Amino acid sequence: MTRRVSLTRYLVEQQRVDGRIPPQLRLLLEVVARACKRISFAVNKGQLGEVMGSAGSENVQGEVQKKLDIIANETLIEANEWGGHLAAMASEEMEGIYVVPNRYPQGEYLLMFDPLDGSSNIDINMSIGTIFSVLKKHDNHPGVHDSDFMQPGTEQVAAGYCIYGPQTTLVLTVGDGVSMFTLDREQGSFILIEENVKIPEDTKEFAINMSNMRHWDEPMKRYIDECLAGEDGPRGKNFNMRWVAAMVADVHRILCRGGVFMYPWDKREPHKAGKLRLMYEANPMSWLIEQAGGASTNCRQRIMEIQPTELHQRVAVVLGSKNEVERVTRYHLEADQKSL
Description:
Its main location: cytoplasm. InterPro entries: FBPase_C_dom (IPR044015), FBPase_class-1 (IPR000146), FBPase_N (IPR033391), FBPtase (IPR028343). Its EC number is 3.1.3.11. It is built from 7 helices and 17 strands. It has about 350 residues and is α+β, with helices and mostly antiparallel strands. Strands 4-3-5-6-7-8-9-10 form an 8-stranded mixed sheet, with helices on both faces. A 5-stranded mixed sheet has the order 12-11-13-17-15, with helices on both faces. A hairpin with a 4-residue loop joins strand 8 and strand 9. Helix 4 packs across helix 7. It starts with 6 loop residues before the first helix and ends with a helix. The mean pLDDT is about 90.
């Protein structure tokens, strides 16, 4: 009989073997997993749980909030605020940081999350998910400030996501590869299903919102045109396009079978570097992809080396199979060089 390893056992064994997971970080990851389990149950109830539809409000980015957006955000805060492992939290759904109340002990970690990525998919029963990133608070001053969160992605100590689809799957890295866990609803635990996930360097699949093509930079148009030309074009092979409209679902597909995901800058909002959030989406997903042997850039530089300057900073994203990401990045850099 195959040994079934729970998330708790996996984290304990990781802590014992090489000390990669300190006790407080292990506790934090277990609490986040429990919160994701609660969110999964709320998602699965759908209309039976009266959680569908718009909440009639907007988040800090001016996007309409779904009822489940708010429920997921509150679930993560309530689960994590009292345990003593966190100093503060930041969410895509909140304008500022959430400092752990004085009535609870403060820990050494900072948690950032997109509580429910892919909100537009909620009402049509397609995959959505929770994305999270963990930083360590610097001890050079008392209290907690926005500046504590302004750390590049290379400073992350843990990152992952939970995808709510046909199965509820938790994907995690602490800097020692990528592991996947599926929720066993009968047992009530996340069970390890795969370790050392690897992404092939080459692929024939790309994910992008083609309806925005007219707004892209020329290097992105060039790359997509070459993919669409298929085996008769310069790439000499046929490509398939996939687009779920939820980053968590597109990244999960890439981790499972390879591919490249692109959400580039476009001309509609030229003053913004991109659409996706650096702190809540791009950094954690980039680390997972890199830990699985892939690459991630903003079309010009490694995303995890970008120095954040604001909590809700946006960024262009190209991530996935290494050779394709490098090609897209090269096209942009060559175009920049020609324009000098």
